[in-house]
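Researcher: Structure for this, please.
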Amino acid sequence: MRPGKTGESTRMASSISLSIDSDLDKVAHIARAVRGVCSGLLSTDDADAVEISVVEAINNVIKHGYQGQPGQDVEVHVVLHKDQVVIDVIDHASPMRTELLDQASEERFAFDETNLDEVPEGGMGLALIQMNMDEVEYTSEGGENRLRMIKRVA
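Model: Predicted structure, token format:
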């Protein structure tokens, strides 16, 4: 602990940074590591939500940003605060169109599963992330893309 103002929380957040190359076979390793880091802070359901969101975010980077090309960097930074978990997925791929995140919602799952013509062609991963996380923000600047996902501690 370090000194702080009276009444101010003096506990520093803990963090971890992970990195893989753009190989879909490595995504599960990162997701399990993030889940492990969050396990003491989040409920099982919230840890499930975080794990799913991390998988979807990294899969999107690899499939859409890097077009499946291996050997590209994907970084994941996790910061644990007493009241929330902040996860940044960072890449240097082509930027995502920002309206894709705005259009991602639970409505993507409102279709008749028996009618294949009604199944949406994209946006399901982003919609899952939006549904599972409390806050989602995307920025792209200077060749760096960052998807920030926040899960509040229940």
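Researcher: Any notable elements?
Model: The longest helix spans residues 44-65. DSSP finds four helices and five strands in the chain.
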